[in-house]
């Protein structure tokens, strides 16, 4: 099993070590331990259920994309850059809700892998624009295929009609 809580994952996903430790205790029940009822957590708290779903989804995503060494945040960055040729770093950070310093580190890694290229903006020399390199576009084709496999597993888990419904319902949170 891929360890979502590794130092690299914490760095890429931006959560504190202490917070991850608490999540790990909840997310990975110990075999042979007493079954614990969750009560109101599963009956009335959408946030709790969404967080548990996110843990399952991220773990499956990370396992699926391990062969190409891409994490969820990196995948999001690559897709948004692909969809917005010449996007500025600050617009990308705002759009994905990534702290600017964290985004710089994430982009450094993608640039070192020759997947993303930063260039000084012609409109504002203080700003950088982002594009995918040829290698980035090529790699993204394989990455998308693996991500589609992950989505198919997710659709199997909740059922195809529910998967489509969840995409529609949760889509309201994607635009602030």
What attributes characterize this protein structure?
single chain; 176 residues; mainly alpha; three-stranded antiparallel β-sheet; 63% helix; elongated; disordered N terminus
Briefly summarize what is shown.
63% of the residues lie in helices and 7% in strands. With 176 residues, the chain is mainly alpha-helical.
Give structural notes.
The protein has 176 residues and is mainly α. It is built from nine helices and three strands; from the N terminus they run αααααβααββαα. The protein has a three-stranded antiparallel beta sheet. Helix 4 crosses helix 8 and helix 8 crosses helix 9. The longest helix is centred in the last third of the chain and has 25 residues, at 134-158. It starts with 6 loop residues before the first helix and ends in a 6-residue tail after the last helix. Residues 1-25 have low confidence and may be disordered.
